[in-house]
Structure prediction request, 365 residues.
Amino acid sequence: MKKVLTILSLFALLSIQFACSGSDSPETPVVDPPVVTDDFIRAADISFLPQVESAGIALTNNGKTEDMLTTLKNAGCNTIRIRLWKNPSDGHSGLAEVKTLAARVKQAGLKVWLTVHYSDTWADPGTQTIPAEWKDLSFANLKTAVSNYTSTIITEINPDIIQIGNEINDGLLWPQGKLSTNETQCIDLLKTASATIRSKAPKTKIMIHYAGVKASDTDWFFGKVKSVDYDYIGLSYYPVWHGKDLTAVKTTIDALGSKFSKKVIIAETAYPFTLGYNDWTNNIVGQSDQLVSGYPATTEGQKNYMLAIKSLLKSSQSGIGFSYWGGEWISFKGSQATDGSTFENQALYDFTNKSLPVFAVFNLN
Prediction:
């Protein structure tokens, strides 16, 4: 017993000495971003939330006003997706607003997934407009600008997951980074962003995002970018644009994961709880022939569609999660707005701003 006590005493002494030597260190160690382990990602994009809150809209859950982040976390959501624009005209989705929202997300104990558009506004398959301040740069200087901007994002926000571009089916930063006409430059830009992230935050996961699930198209695209260092394949899947066959979605996920040795995420999806509307802005989905068979535009139909998406991902060899897009995009500008929401009938809240049954999809199981 005396020998055991002596060993324990020595261990305690060494522990105290180690702790004291650490406190005397003249430099604060660099802390890496939290490791995003390959557990199932249950995310929601809430990029409009600051505008919704600024409009004085109260979102409710179980009959009480509640912060959307609280509702999401209590439902089982573990990751929040936020878009980032370079220099937006009104400041929304710019670095300052996104940094503030990301801090709230981290404070709530959720992971931050940044969607960097590398644009001052929406970037998608049909539009990848270069930021105005970069439009006259040479290609060499454009790569430097991309590296510096990406470095700033990592330093200022420190995300768990970062997308290099949004829905970059034909590249990004047009015309210099257009995949169909400047393939080498497109790949160079992606590699520049990736290398910057790896050097600044080696544990942050990198995603490349494509809109669509057609097997031949996704195979072609991810074949083109296979030399880029990244972790996750992100896919947008909206039945109104990308087909109504959920089996085909799973087949594509399995094929991509197997061929390119990546985890695959449905980075964007959504579904209507009604075909009605709550403002004077035309909605993306408003007709019954835009729906998936077996999933009506009802609150239960919306929930069951999302549960089906979750199920096919979990049953896939490569599926690692999903993000619900537009869940916060209610008609916050008022019922007569002609520049309001095109998505209020696909939100996670009804037209009285009450949380819907679809929140159940964020459950761990």
